[in-house]
Every structure is written in C-alpha cells, then in structure tokens.
Amino acid sequence: MKILIVDDEPRHRRGMLNLILSFRPEDKILVAKDGVIALELIRSEKPDMVLTDIRMPNMDGLEFLKLLQGESHKPKVVMVTAYNLFEYAQAAIHHGAYDYVLKPVDSDQVEKLLRRIEAELDMESQQHSESEALKQKLNLTLSAYRNRLLVKWLNGDLTPDELAEMDQIEGLNGKGIIVFTEIAVDPDKRRSFDSDAFLSSLKQCWSNVGEAFSFSPNTLADSFVRAITIILTPEGLTAIQRADIRTHAERLEARWIMYGQISHGIGTKCQSMQAEGAMAYRYAQTARSYSFYDCWNGVVFYDELLSPNELLSMDTEKLYKLLQSGDLDAAKEQCKVAFNNLASNGHTNPALIKESAVLTLIKLKSRSRNLVDQQIGSVLSNSAAIEVPACQSFEEILELLELRLRDVYSAIQPSQSEKDVILAEDCLRWIEEHVQEELTLERAADRFFFNPSYFSTWIKQQTGRTFSDHLVEARMRKAQSLLNANRKIYEVASACGYSDTKYFCRVFKKHHGMSPASYKHTTSQRSDMG
Length: 530
What we know:
The chain is of the alpha/beta class and 530 residues long. It is built from 21 helices and eleven strands. Pfam families: HTH_18, Response_reg.
C-alpha cells in the first residue's frame, strides 16, 4: 500500500513511519506536517490511506477531512490523536474518517488495522473491476443495439415500436450527410485488421467536418469491410467543405493503406436526417460504386454525378477482322477508345461498363468459334461470367479485355497461313467479278477489313504480285475474252473499267505486245483460217 502520515510533530511522524516499516517493509510511506501539504500529496501521489493527527497548525485534521470530500481521490483516513474525547471521534466519523486511533498507538492494533484496510481495498478494487466490466459490456450491448436500429432505419425495415425508439437518438432531426465507406482488405492482412479501430478512425476523420458517429452495417463480403458514418452539420456541401472532406479522406487513406484501398460515397445533404436519411444512404451507396473509376480518387459525391446516355460504339466484326489480319495494336486501341467513350469520364454506371465488356467477350467467342480451339472459348466464357463481374476498377476491365484480345489473336495466328490462302483467293475472285467498276486498293482493303497499307503488303506476300498487277491482269483477261467475241474496242474498254479508250489501248499493248485492234485482227484471221 501507499500510506500518508500527517503530523506536525517530527518525532511522531518518524515513530509511525518506523513502526509501519517494521512489519510492512514493502509499503511506500509519505509524510506531511499539516493538512495543506497532505492535500497536495493526495492530489499528486494518490495514497491508499492516511494516518493523520487531529490538532495541527495551518489546517487541522478535521478541516482536512472536510476538504478531502471535494477531492476526486479519496483515501481511507484514520484519525490518530492523544485526545480521548467523544466529540472528536464523533466529528471525525461524521466527516468520513475510516477509524479512530489513540496515542500512544499499539503496534498490534495498527498492524491489524492496516491489514483490514488492505483487505477492504482489495475487495473494493475487485468490485470496481467487475462493475467496470459490466458497464463496458452494457455499453457494448447498447451500442450494438443502437447500430442495428440505425441500419434497419437506413434500410427502411423499422417496426412502429422501433420508429418510436429512433426519436430517442439525439441529432437525427438535424441537418447532415451520410457517408458510405468500403475498404478492400488485403486477404493476407484480414486477421490483423481491427474493425473497431477502423470505425474509430472514421469517426475521428469525419469529426473534422461535423459531429460524427460511425458504425458497421453488419455486412462482410469477401475481403470488403463496410461502414456508415452520419455527420451532423448545419453547413451545406459547399466547395470548401467538399475540399475538406477529400483532404480528410486522403489522410485516412494514408493511415490504412497498408490494409487496402478505401473508397467513400457521400449522399445528398439532408435537411432532416430522420426524414431523408434512408434516401441519402442509398445515394451514398450508389456514389461509392463510382469509385470504380480512378478519376474520383476514392471520394464520390452523389450530386456531382452526371447521367450520360452513352452506348458502346464498337464494331465487333471490325475488331475481329483486325485481329484476323494480324493488327493486334489497332484492335486494342479500338477497344480502349470505345470503352473510354462509354465511360464518359467516370459518369457512366459501372454496371453498364461490365455489361458491355461481357457482351464484347461473348461476341468475340461467337465470331471466332470456328477458328479457335475449345480452350480459348472456355477462357472467354470464364472471363465473361466470372472475371468481369469481379473487376473492381475500370482499369481492370481494360486490362482484362486486352488480355482476351491477345488470346484470340494468338489463337488465330497458328492457322492463319491456311486462312490467308483462302482469303487471297477470295480477293482475286472479287477483283475478277468487279473489273468493270472503279477499283482501288483502299476499296479492296475496306471490303476485306484490312488496313490499306497492311493489305498492300499482305496480298503481295500471299501471291507474289501487287494489287495493281492483279487488277490489270484481270482486266486484260476480260479484254481478250471480249475482243475474241468481236466486241467493239470502246465497249471492251468500258467493260474492263477504263473510261479512257486510248489509255486502255496503251495498257493492252503494253501487256500483250500489240494494240487491241491488231489483237482483234489477228484473232479474226485465225478464225478465218480455221
């Protein structure tokens, strides 16, 4: 124990000190010469008990007892005096003295007294601990019940009796905002993550904005921990207040970044929290989902969201043709541009982005089903059914689509040589069928979904001749056929796609070594000779 001896006589102080230490050497003994000094020591040292004389200068023992009643720390006080007067004892007990001892003190009596006081202090300490534990348990129970009530209120599930209880919760009739928070906890750190400490940090964070209290909606999905904060503030969501909210959110993020990314959705301002809170909560949940886009930096205000009427403007057939032609980079760029346009700078509902990604993958699978193996088809199906819905950000969607485009591209390439032969034959056949028309490299490339520059290189690789060579060859073959049929030269030129007859004649002569007229004459002579 820690014991304070108060006596104006030095000899008596030393005597009591030595007496106690003789049978309780482990105790800490303090001494004071009057009540004034004793009060100061009680405030600073907080002794367990006090042995004090009654008659002392400056402040006697009885005055000391009276003033001690106003102190936060109240040790057990034993009055020690040489005056065996009833009125002293009565006054001492009246003012809170634990016991009354006469001088000269008996050592056995003092030892028994100290043991009795120590036993009582131990019992009181145990009772206090039990009381505090019970109080804490009760507070936790009440807090859990209040949180459950608030969650039911926000979800619109309160019974009439519970609605009446809501009236007892202070502040809900005032103005304020609701913040819906989610932290994606790293699975490896889930066991060390302290949800209560996180809620405490949230409350501390948002208390910079207004009177705040945070609680859990009692939902844990995979590694996501969610929380709701009600902030009572008379201010509107001004530009300054929004900037403050973003600043405090950044500080909170810095503190918890070791566990995962944090995102917040802020609902609309409530003029009456109790009347409008449920709707504001739904708005806050919606706003938080838009943190899917990195451009919001994890803090989204519902009233800052726009309503774009975007649809995915991407030709999946053209996308596939780019992959088929070997232009993977162009295919990736087309896909990226289309989805960035759809995203509208983070204002398009993330669900629409995911739906469009799923549709793109399904179309790619359908278009390539006869050209890729079953494994690639399964990969595309798995991405559409599982991986896209699991994506937590727009960047993840883009990365996933790029990976699947690369997979399709790689699957097409091993059998591309055979397909190239067939496609080249289709191109030459198309040229033969359209020689009368104005044919250009660009028109042919567009017809077969090629980039013009790539098409020019590709057809030469496949056939050993340029597009122009094939076009002239096809036209000259048709010209021969028509001249053999004794058609007029200008008619033949027009039928072969030449609007200038003289130019046709020059091309024909260069190709066959004679003019159309000479060819016609020679052919006619051969016929006559036959």
